[in-house]
TrEMBL record:
Alphabetized UniProt keyword annotations: Hydrolase
Organism: Blastococcus brunescens
InterPro entries associated with the record: AB_hydrolase_fold (IPR029058)
Keyword Zinc attached: no
An example Gene Ontology molecular-function term: hydrolase activity
Similarity comment: Belongs to the peptidase S33 family.
UniProt protein name: Alpha/beta hydrolase
Length: 256
């Protein structure tokens, strides 16, 4: 939720709702907190309905992208357009033989997982053990989060070139005081299936320093792709790093 603070002043002419996803800092408590990314869609849809919104554009990345796909498939009549910053790494169900570009993308994703994906496998296979360790150590939690902010952003290895120290401490503290690090692992342990096709008008903003870059033909197969953007800067936390470029994608989706 914190990563979207910098886009809010750029969208004052529209109504913006930034939900805290279940299991993450500042989220409303739920009896079942072990939800997949797609499983969170039901709660987001209910919250939007309670707020009085019948149709809306959804903008998201990472776990939020899984929730966005859940909204676009299970609540298709409510989602007028999508804006996403990354594509699923898993093959689509029912997909035919992969193209050369898809094979190259899978090879790139596999290489990234082997060199950088230990966190993903730990959260997927041993989430409770990891949660105890990080939930019991402020320094361990800080190391865990700062590593991601540094390596996944367009920081060039200097995290404070993107995140001021006070902001880094705010992100760490949000997880510490809410005890949310363990529950934030649930979407990794409960993987969301990749839909075969999402027939919602879609804008993709692929930032150059995000985790794994996907080919445009893959987006065209998965989405009703209307706009493809490749900004010059930005990484996994693009809404924070380059809010103007991120909002360009949001605006494009609002115009569909």
């Amino acid at each position: 939720m914190l990563r979207y603070e910098r886009v809010l002043p750029l969208l004052t002419d529209v109504h913006v709702v930034v939900p805290a996803l279940p299991g993450y800092p500042f989220a409303a408590p739920l009896q079942d907190r072990d939800l997949s990314g797609a499983g969170m869609a039901e709660h987001v849809a209910a919250a939007m309905a309670e707020l009085g919104y019948e149709r809306y554009v959804v903008s998201a990345g990472d776990i939020g992208r899984m929730t966005a796909l859940g909204l676009a498939t299970e609540y298709r009549e409510r989602v007028s357009a999508l804006h996403v910053t990354d594509l699923p790494l898993a093959p689509r169900p029912g997909a035919g033989p992969p193209s050369d570009e898809e094979l190259e993308h899978r090879t790139s994703a596999s290489g990234w997982l082997m060199s950088n994906g230990a966190y993903l496998l730990a959260q997927r296979t041993r989430p409770h053990t990891l949660a105890v360790a990080l939930g019991d150590s402020p320094s361990g939690l800080a190391a865990w989060i700062v590593e991601k902010l540094r390596d996944w952003s367009d920081s060039g290895g200097d995290v404070e070139s993107v995140f001021a120290r006070e902001d880094v401490l705010t992100w760490i503290t949000a997880y510490w005081v809410t005890g949310a690090i363990g529950t934030s692992f649930a979407p990794y342990a409960r993987l969301s299936p990749t839909p075969e096709r999402v027939d919602v008008p879609t804008v993709v903003s692929q930032f150059p320093h995000d985790l794994v870059r996907a080919p445009r033909p893959l987006a065209e197969q998965l989405f009703d792709l209307r706009v493809w953007q490749e900004p010059e800067a930005g990484g996994h936390f693009a809404a924070w790093e380059v809010p103007e470029a991120f909002v360009t994608g949001v605006r494009a989706a609002l115009d569909l």
